[in-house]
Amino acid sequence: MMPRIARNLLMVFWIAVIPFSAQALEAKQYLNFKIVIPTVLFLQSATVTQGVVVSNEDVSRGYVDVPTQYVIVSNSKKGFIFEVTLGGAQSFTAFQVINHNTEASTRFSLSLNAINTSNKQISFTLVYRFWFNQPEIHPGMYQWPVVVTLIQN
What we know:
Blueprint (H helix, E strand, L loop, with lengths): L3 H22 L15 E5 L6 E3 L1 H6 L1 E12 L5 E7 L5 E6 L9 E6 L8 E12 L7 E3 L3 E7 L1
Antiparallel strand pairs: 1-3, 2-8, 3-7, 4-6, 4-9, 5-7
């Protein structure tokens, strides 16, 4: 048995130490987080086409006009560039976007601002004028001659 004084001293020590040790065990944690929303940039051709249909009348004119409607969905606040390039179709030498008064070329770029509509969607129509590589062109169906790309600013 412990003497009474030693036992009392031990009890006083534990009474004094226990509150401090409880504070030492208390920990505080903070959670810092950042929400990142990935940029969505989606292009869809609303005009379904298997290719370019060329008639006898088109052949005699030297070109064919093809209206094409596009839908773009994006949450980008920076906007984007809509770029059209003449692809590997060797039947066509150049194209124009006639509703934008462009010259005949193999490339067209259109800078678009951020979409500020509630559904984050815009639609627009481009009227392509495809110039033929004469005299190789004949009436018929030809592969779609342009490649369309969206590039975020």
